[in-house]
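ugh ok fine here u go
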Amino acid sequence: MSDAPPIVLERDRHLKWRAFDRIELLLMVLCGVAIAGFSLCVVLDIVTRTIGSPWLWLQEVTSAFFIYGSFFGMAVATRRADHLMLSAITEAMTGMTRHCVEIFNRLVILVCGLCMAWFGWTNFLHGFGSFRMPSLTPLAWWYLAIPISGVFICLFAIEQIVNGWRNGFPALAPQPEPEDLPP
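structure:
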């Protein structure tokens, strides 16, 4: 038994490797930090503008929290199959048809992740020629969230393709808890 907190439901365990659970947890914590940081920055921006002494650099920090939170959240949602999926269609299917459509869905996600990683990295490298005002920080540091997220999306898509191929895709039916069973 792992000492990591149980962030994966047992009904979804057949699609996930335990080795990636800590990565998912870290990304979820970073998303929480980004949401809290974004919210705090927006409040501080409103307060400082209201009192007539705005902190101009605060908008840069706000946008960084928003960008990183959005892209890291996209990676977590990919692992949790909460994003980029045609689940309503596939849940109505059974057998080999469902198996093929599930793999196709994840292959599309994998291609999107590869594009994010490749073109995001290219954009990151080109971002050193453009700067945010007033700090003159290169835009590359905002763009870096794209290839990082793309790499995680690729890892999680491959994880689901391999495990779905081996174990099947339909989630196991939830088992009733002992206290829910009739006496």
